[in-house]
Amino acid sequence: MIPVARPAAPVSTGTGCAPCHHGEILQGVFLDADGRRCAGLVTLPMAGPGSSAEFVPHPGTAPDALTVAPADRTKAAQAAVLAVAECAERAGLPCCGGELRISGDIPVGLGMGSSTSDVIATVRAVADAYGLRLAPETVARLAVSAELASDPLMLDGRPVLFAQREGRVLEVLGPALPPLVVVGCTLGGGAPVDTLALPVREAADADIRDFERLRTLLRRAVATGDARLLGEVATASARRGQQVLGHTEFDALTAIARRVGAAGVQIAHSGAVAGVLFDAAAPGLRYRVRSCLRALDAHGIPATRAFTTFTTLKEILDGPAHRGGDRPAGPDTARRPARLPAL
Fold first, then answer.
1. What is the CA radius of gyration of the chain?
2. What residue ranges of the chain have pLDDT lower than 50?
């Protein structure tokens, strides 16, 4: 057999993309399978905004000879260096520098996972340049190494309890969230939140018990498709988050949710984005959503967009439901959120 010559370095431009999320449904400190305490979260996925990355390798240059545009995407730059080392070793090729270009439309600082989306898109672009496709677990490990904590945007959209500082799944809660309609809004005037500047409060034993109770309730809500129960969990988690965030509009937001018959509210625990959660099967849903929008406007809370946690017929007819190559095919495939027009 004649040996096939392998290239000395990646020569093709690699591309990658990643979605965002709409803040958390649940966040706290939980126990893993070994009974060890772990910070964890369950995010609310949202289709629509996302990050795209393009990596142009420069063979023969040093791995740290990397240019990034925009230049302030330092976490993505670190992810590119780590991904090059990982992919070069797997492909049996030398490391090299290159040019990284990032684009996207995720608002920064609102708690929608903009930095994680940049990082994941970057890792995927580097892997593509090396002709590889990395497993979600590997992408998660690289993302945590690049930014210290990562959202689970590299996974398939199923609701999971994710240890954001360790890059691992603590529990798969089920195949999909209950059908919800979410009316998104921003608090605090939409001002960005500096996550690293937030005070850190050590979780006591009583806190752990409360978080584990909410975890059990959320597991039940997902298993039974109970949107109301999920709303109760999200509201309770959001209320606990106010001990740190202290949004002045929180009481008004929860009062609006009760008045219009919503299932509850969710708030990004590291940002200003929030959502009023409606059971998609609730009677008079259109009237409830309109009433919610009027109430938000009356309280000076800007509405952003509405979306769902389930795939609509329109999405299926308009194009492939699966984009980005991160969701397996099959009857158990998790349903992607569908995007409704911005408000």
1. 21
2. 1-6, 313-341
